[in-house]
Write a structure and sequence with these properties.
175 residues; alpha+beta; 7-stranded mixed sheet
Length: 175
Amino acid sequence: MGRRVIQLKPLQKENVNSFYQWLNDPKVIQYSLSLFQKLNTEEEIDFWFKGVLRDAKTLSLGIYADEIFIGYAGISNFSSTNRSGEYYIFIGDKTYWGQGVGTEVTKQIIKIAFEEKELERLMLTVSVPNKGGVIAYTKAGFKEEGILRNAALRDGAFHDKIIMSILKTEYNGQT
């Protein structure tokens, strides 16, 4: 099998259909937004997704692997004063986990952050048990800054989250 083509494209209204299945899979949402733990019905998911499409303060892009919609990623919490933002990624299609897609998408978002959005700093938080996420972010150039202790409650237990960031001076312009 040849190398996958991973592209970021604007989200479309019909992308919501994939979230109906993804957000009802406990494994998929385990380390994702806390909000995802509460969205179950199509109506709740529709309401959330319409908000995502309307949110002009957050960059939200669909992730496509060989033209198949598999998730979304982007930058939230933009600060024009501090020239910073927070990276997020959600790969809902489990068949693409562990294949380097997260690393590739992360590199593409870093490029957008520093070349198009002219940010100085891009940060993220990742759950300690999400080992695949930690590996992908590290491969893309993020560095650990600290720990948020007992910051997430999943499956009846608390776990820590790692704060990571990358600075424009650490970005080498390669994706």
